[in-house]
Write a structure and sequence with these properties.
36% helix, TIM Barrel, 10 strands, single chain, eight-stranded parallel beta barrel
Length: 334
């Protein structure tokens, strides 16, 4: 245990919290995702510093999945170790979420939405983190094969076994989401939260998903609000050496950093500067402007980056003129 660290007593005054759907649970406007930069290949001390800083600034929700790393599973292991070494006695002040459904182990049972996968996954994840339960456990995806009824029954049983307090779905198409919401509601285990990709550059959820989640009383958590870095100042002048898009592998491919996206980011950056914000801060504020959004998951590779993102909370309001100008940029064909 690290006896030197004591959480800041003013931490909750630095964050705004939003009610998660029709539940009693409040989530911070910004949550910390451990998708990248918290695995076994990353600097453990930097990861520790980021989680400490997040908690000291009112971030109480930490978002994991069984396959986060790399190596897969190592983000959960590191997070569990950080909790034991720094946060003994503070577990009840945290919301810890995890997920299962993407590829995790070899063979036919290690990466789908089956009951077999979810039941094995949550036991493995609890062991890696050293936790007795997760606050939220998600079906990470609809795999296109497993009946939604089977996946939802697994989530219901996970709740009844005491392995999670709430359940959620992530990236489900609207048709399957409707089925999931109905099954969970009928079992008196309502879907607490729906997690989807949402940013200025990815607005598909506006077509149906956001309204559907709101109608059934599910909270909404947005991930990738900065479009893997495209909505930061990093790519305003092309692809820099050492950046995520410059790597031969990864989720942001060089082909995605198009001249059109760069030009739109530059024009958006001009609006952000007029608002006294960085492009990243404005992009986060833009997602949070919708009251149906409960929380936005941010990633970080340093305390400095986390500090910069948190400043978005100081400028969440937009004028009608700003929103119109942003929409014109996003909808333009360059």
């Amino acid at each position: 245990m690290n006896t030197d660290y004591q959480p800041d007593g003013q931490r909750y005054e630095r964050m705004s919290y939003r009610r998660c759907g029709r539940s009693g649970l409040m989530l911070p406007a910004l949550s910390l995702g451990l998708w990248q930069n918290f695995g076994s290949v990353d600097n453990y001390h930097t990861a520790t510093d980021m989680i400490r800083y997040a908690f000291d600034h009112g971030i109480t929700h930490f978002d994991l999945a069984n396959n986060y790393g790399p190596l897969p599973g190592s983000a959960e292991e590191n997070f569990g170790r950080i909790l034991r070494e720094n946060f003994c006695g503070y577990r009840d002040e945290m919301i810890v979420s995890s997920k299962a459904g993407h590829e995790m182990w070899a063979g036919p049972y290690g990466g789908n939405s089956s009951r077999k996968n979810l039941m094995a996954s949550i036991d493995q994840s609890l062991k890696r983190t050293g936790l007795g339960y997760f606050d939220i456990f998600y079906s990470h995806r609809y795999d296109g094969v497993t009946p939604v009824e089977e996946t939802m029954q697994a989530l219901i049983d996970i709740i009844r076994q005491g392995k999670a307090l709430y359940v959620g779905i992530s990236k489900y198409p609207p048709e399957q989401a409707r089925i999931a919401y109905r099954i969970l509601a009928e079992a008196h285990v309502p879907c607490l939260v729906s997690q989807y990709r949402y940013s200025m550059f990815e607005r598909t959820v506006e077509e149906e998903t956001l309204a559907l989640a709101t109608a059934v009383g599910s909270g909404f958590v947005a991930f990738s609000p900065l479009a893997q870095g495209l909505l930061t100042d990093k790519y305003l002048n092309g692809i820099p050496e050492g950046s995520r898009a410059a790597r031969p592998t990864g989720f942001l491919q060089r082909s995605q950093v198009t001249p059109e996206k760069i030009e739109k980011a530059r024009r958006l950056n001009s609006i952000a500067l007029r608002r006294g914000q960085t492009l990243a801060q404005m992009a986060l504020a833009w997602v949070l402007k919708d009251e149906r959004v409960t929380s936005v998951i941010i990633g970080a590779s340093s305390v400095g980056q986390l500090e910069d993102n948190l400043k978005a909370l100081g400028g969440l309001s937009f004028t009608a003129e700003e929103l119109e100008e942003i929409d014109c940029i996003l909808n333009s064909a360059l």
